[in-house]
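Workshop exercise sheet. Pairs work together: one partner reads the sequence aloud, the other fills in the structure field after running the prediction. Swap roles for the next sheet.
Pair: D.N. / O.F.
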Amino acid sequence: MERDRRQTQLEIAISEALRFRETLESIGGSVAAPFVERESPVRKPTNIEVKPSVALGECHSCGAKMSGDIEFCPVCGEF
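Structure field:
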């Protein structure tokens, strides 16, 4: 359910970006386009799922498990 909602949000965002681009093209050269054309994708698509990193310890303030990919507690916000 959450995945479907997120996919719908992404599709709407892409649709809005495309509509904005069409509007800029219809205006003509009076506004510089904010888009950069690339010959290859910035990120290579993969079938590997992103998984959370292994917990490194506990928050000194609230005791919640901390992970290595962020420098603050996701529960209380302490650094």
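Discussion prompt: The chain has two domains: 1-32, 53-79. What would you look at next?
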